Amino acid sequence: MRIWDIPPEKMCRQHLLGEHRELHAMWSIITNNKKAYAHHPETLRWKGKLKALYLRHEALVEEMAKRGYKHHTPLDPALATGKAFQDEFVNTYEEQVRILKERGCDCKV
Ligand SMILES: [Zn+2]
Ligand SMILES: [Zn+2]
């Protein structure tokens, strides 16, 4: 479970689509107060920041559209409350870049 802080245009297909899927799971966990993953560090850093999570989703969807992927699962903007920017990190931006480099995928980091 990870929402990256990497600009979507730098992400490979696998990581872009994978993050989009996990973002929907994260949104569901927080908006439905689900117990599963409720105390996961990644979940904790997004709690109270649904506006920021919403904006990250919009950025992912925009990049997906550029690459020709259709999107049929909009988030409810009425639920996009709280802080509009993310300032807590499980891994720093530099660590995230290193993690993606080590994957050996097509991410342009
Ligand atoms: Zn979506
Ligand atoms: Zn990648």
From TrEMBL:
Domain of life: Archaea
SUPFAM superfamilies according to UniProt: T4 endonuclease V
Pfam family, one: Pyr_excise
Protein name stated in the entry: Pyrimidine dimer DNA glycosylase
Organism: Methanosarcina lacustris Z-7289
